[in-house]
Amino acid sequence: MMIQMKILERIRGFSFNPSKEFAASKDDTLTEAFKYYVLLLAILALILALAVSIVATAMASMLALSELTLMPGLPELGKIAPLLGAGAFVGIIAAGIIAALYIAVWLHIWVYLFGGRKGLKQTTKAITYGATPCLILGWVPGPNVIIAPIWSLLLVITGLMELHELSPGRSILAVILAILLPLIIIGVIAAFIVPIIL
Predict the structure, then answer these.
(1) Other CB atoms within 10 Å distance of the CB of residue 37
(2) How far apart are the first and last CA of the chain?
(3) Which of 8, 5, 1, 11 is nearest to 135 (CA)?
(4) How far apart are CA 50 and CA 58, in angstroms?
């Protein structure tokens, strides 16, 4: 019960008073940060996995009523719906952990270039704690696409300001460049590949 209250207080703190919560998390270990992140990620994964199972079961029921089969020789969708849900759960957890680590390392390069010298640990905490809105709202259609990512970006920027003691401008520039550079590279590659394909 005590752990649940601490998690709820943390969620509330990062969501509504991030500067204070990030300042309080300066001495947190990576283990503490990842426990928080993975717990919220697991809850999100469970909700989405249940949704996948329910949708697969509903589709199987509709297909059974219409006497259609997706592909001859494949097991009925209804029989593998729980397996699809379990796969979604594991996939979301794995992708979430890998993404957090990748983003933390990539962002840390930019943070370092803009003067952040408190270490990769602090950048990782900014990412794991900053992801709170995406992890909380990730299952809600609408907010999970617009509100949560913007809110999370603002939290990551706040986390960088507090944990790396960077100015707002430097934190914003680090985050913007970490986002834009891959997009520019993808755009340039696409500009060369698309004409070749067409």
Answers:
(1) 23
(2) 60
(3) 11
(4) 12
List for the chain the helix, strand, coil content (%; round to 5): 80, 0, 20
User: What pLDDT is attached to residue 169?
Assistant: 98
Q: Residue 136's closest CA among 24, 13, 15, 6?
A: 15
Distant-in-sequence, close-in-space partners of 142: CB < 8 Å, separation ≥ 6: none
What is the residue whose two structure tokens read 């990782």? 124
Kindly report the length of the chain.
198
Rounded to whole angstroms, the Cα distance separating 120 from 122 reads 5
Of the chain, the percentage scoring pLDDT greater than 70 comes to: 90
Quick one: CA torsion of 99, 133, 33, 5, rounded to 10 degrees?
Answer: -150
Question: Distance (Å, rounded) from C-alpha 104 to C-alpha 127?
Answer: 6
Q: For residues 178 and 197, what is the distance between their CA atoms, to the nearest angstrom? A: 29
User: Per-residue pLDDT averaged across 152-167, rounded?
Assistant: 98
From the list 45, 21, 50, 46, the residue with the least C-alpha distance to 33 is: 21
Q: How far apart are CA 68 and CA 32, in angstroms?
A: 50
The predicted model scores a pTM of 0.89
Q: By the 8 A CB rule, do 45 and 38 touch?
A: no
